[in-house]
Specification:
By secondary structure, the chain is of the alpha+beta class. 40% of the residues lie in helices and 12% in strands. Helix 5 crosses helix 7 and helix 7 crosses helix 8. The radius of gyration is 22 Å and the shape is globular. The chain starts with 16 loop residues before the first helix and ends with a strand.
Amino acid sequence: MHDEPNHETSHQPPPPAAARAPRITALWRRLPATAPGAGSAGGTPGLVRSVADPAAGPPLPPGGRTVAPSPLDPGAALDPHPVHRRLREEFPLTYDPLLRAWVLSRYADVATALTDTRFTHGHRPGDPACSRAHVDVDLAELRSVAERTAYVLARRIADRPRADLVADFCHWLPAGTVAAAVGVPYRDMMRLVRGRAATALAGECGGQIAVREKALASFLGNVLADPDQVAALRDAPAALVARAWTESLRRDPPVQIAVRRTREDVRVSGGILPGGSSVALLVGAAGRDPERFREPDRFDPLRDDPGQLTYGSGFCPAVILAGLEAEYGLRALFEAMPRLRLADGFRPVPTGLITRAPRTLLVRPNG
């Protein structure tokens, strides 16, 4: 799971779309033809392509210019995928003035930026520095507390005629597993777990609790939205549940945009990233890159081209817990509510720009 952009490299959460649109339009009109740091080396593109550029595609009306969309465009919070698609196809390297960063959207480029030492890496679960920070972590205990907490929460909602899995389950499970692991009483877990308790277990990864909530909500939403997936995963072995979890992280990562900085010039699709530049990585766009994944918009736990960019590869309690919460959360819900299904007429709707997940998951626990 990635760290979210900090205040040095990003704005505060954007204002409502209606208020943001005039500001975005005004910014675009003032933009030069090239972005800060762009030079002739490698033909690095700027945000705006001139109609004189032979690579710019079909001719535009006289005096027209082709402008790259922004990941913060109005409407992207509800559906970022059209913007992501256009950036991948037409603007693989572009400067975004709202993010104050260069933007990468193709899988190969985002994967490089997340792993290549030419990019600085802030702390995120799974990074090598993160792995070295965790010692004496009892994996059996993590598994035990995740399983126990999931079953307690599932039983609390099993007899209701209707429930919201985001508010009643996803919001509590990640916090509850951390609380149980460090001995915080259940009644105190939400008050303490985001501070002392979380830090005691996972160090700097403690702040990933909110991200794990969103990842779990997207996972449950993806599974419950398709009755065939419900049937396939109801009594599935752990390996298949793990594949479904990985597929959900690919298709609907909880963190859509991660920020890095280049240590030196780096060649990527579309040109060269100048050294010392902030770079916004569109993890959500990379996970749906058709150059890497077949039918990328489809949720398919059995796909033969799996992969995701949400986690690093190293050991970290936050990474382990997220997977355990997905596995035992799903098992606990199905065991406590064998006829669990989405409420009539309800379909999960993910929202968000930087982080993204359904805000509600309305279900009928007893069918």
